[in-house]
Amino acid sequence: MGEQPIFSSRAHVFQIDASTKKNWVPTSKHAVTVSYFFDSTRNVYRIISLEGSKAIINSTITPNMTFTKTSQKFGQWADSRANTVYGLGFSSESHLVKFAEKFAEFKEAARLAKEKSHEKTGLAGSPSQESAPGESLQSSLAPGTLNGTDEDRNTSDTQHAETTAETTQNALPPTYSSSSVSKHWEAELATLKGNNAKLTAALLESTANVKQWKQQLAAYQEEAERLHKRVTELECVSGQTTAIKTHKTELNKTIEGLELALKDKEEELERLKAEVESSNVFYSRKDTLVQKLQDTESRNQLLEAQLSELEQRLESTQQEKEAFRNSLRSLLELLDSKIFELTELRDTLAKLIETS
CB of 269 within 8 A of CB of 293? Predict the structure, then answer.
C-alpha cells in the first residue's frame, strides 16, 4: 500500500454533539493512538485513529483546515467533509504542541500538493479536459461524499449561519465566509468551556471551604462551651477575678474571629453568586447552582443564629455573675447586721451579769 504512518501520538478522542453543537461526546473509552498518514499515490495527508477495529477518526487534511488549541492539553479542528468537529485531549502540553506543529506542517504540504496538481491540470488543459470540473462536481455529489467539499458547504451553510455569512460576504471571498463562521463558533465554544470549568472549580473550592469552616466552627463552639464551664467554675471562687477576665477576653476574641470568618465567607458566596447569575451560558445548571447557594446561605443563617445564641449565653452568664455578686453583698450586709446584734446582745448579757 502507498499509505504509511509518518507521526503518531496518544490522546482521548472527542466529537462535537451533532444535535447541540456545544457539548463534546467522547468516542474513545481511553487514550488511543492518533496517527498522520501520507498517501503517496494520491499525494494526500490523513489523520486516522482506530479503537479496536473501529475507525473513530478518518479526516483528510485540506488547506482550509485549522487546528485550534483551546487549552493547555486540548485541541480541535473542523472537518467539513465529515460534517463534524474533532477534539483531542492529550496527557501533556508538549504532546499537544507537537501534534499542532505536525498539523501545520502537513497542512502546508497539502496546500503545495494542491497547487502543483492545479498547475499540472492547467498545463495539460484541452477541450476534453476542460469538462473535468463538471465531472468532478458530479462525483462530489455521489453517496460516498454526500456532505460535499469545503466550497460546496460554504454555499449551503445552515440557516443559523446565513445571516453572519451575508454580513461578511463583501469583506471575505465566498470560500472563507463559512470558515470564519465556524471559527467564530469554535471560539464561542472554547469560551463556554473555559467559563464552565472556572465556575465548576470555584463552586468545588467554595464547597470545600464551607465544609472546612463548619468543622472549625464546631471546634470553636466546643471551645466556647469549655470556656463557659470554666467561667462558671471560676465565678464560684471570688479570688480569681483576674483569670475570669482573661478567659472572657479570649472568648470575645474567638467570637470576633468567627464573625470575621463568617463575613469573609458571605462575601465569597456573594461573589460566586454574582458570577453564576451573570453567566447566561449555563441555563441547564442554573437551578442547581442557585439551590446550592441557597442551602449555603441557610447554613450561614443557622450559624449566625448560633453565634447570636452564644452571645446571649455570654450576656446571661455575665448577668448571673452580677446577681451572684449582689447576693454576696446582701449576705455580707446581713451577716454584719447579725454580728452587730450579737455584739449588742453580748454587751447586754455582760451588764446583766455585772449587776447581778
Answer: yes
Window from 41-55, 193-207, 247-261 with minimum mean pLDDT: 193-207
Residue 49 sits at φ, ψ, to 5 deg, of -145, 135
Beta carbons of 297 and 269 less than 8 angstroms apart: yes
DSSP 193-257: HHHHHHHHHHHHHHHHHHHHHHHHHHHHHHHHHHHHHHHHHHHT-GGGHHHHHHHHHHHHHHHHH
- Local structure of residue 190 (DSSP, 8 states): H
- Using alpha carbons only, give the angle 125, 128, 130 rounded to the nearest 5 degrees: 50
N residues, the chain: 356
Amino acid at 173: P
Neighbours of 73 (CB within 10 A): 17
Cβ(35)–Cβ(28) below 8 Å: no
pLDDT digits (tens, 9 = 90+) for 13-65: 999 998 888 899 999 989 999 999 998 888 899 999 998 888 999 999 999 99
CB 4 within 8 A of CB 37: yes
pLDDT tens-digit map of 276-331? 777 666 666 778 888 898 999 999 999 999 999 999 999 999 999 999 999 999 99
Q: What angle do CA 151, 48, 92 make, to 5 degrees?
A: 105
Cell of 169: 460576504
Q: Give the DSSP letter of residue 91.
A: S
| d(C-alpha 185, C-alpha 215), whole Å | 45
Q: Is residue 11 classed exposed, middle or buried when 0-12, 13-18 and 19+ CB atoms within 10 A define those classes?
A: buried
Please count the other Cβ atoms lying within 10 Å of the Cβ belonging to residue 13: 20
Name which residue leads in pLDDT, 246 or 209: 246
* Residue 37 CA to its chain's centroid (Å): 37
Q: Specify the residue for cell string 460534517.
A: 83
DSSP element (H, E) containing 77: strand 74-79
C-alpha cell at 318: 455575665
The amino acid that residue 302 corresponds to is: L
Identity of the residue numbered 92: S
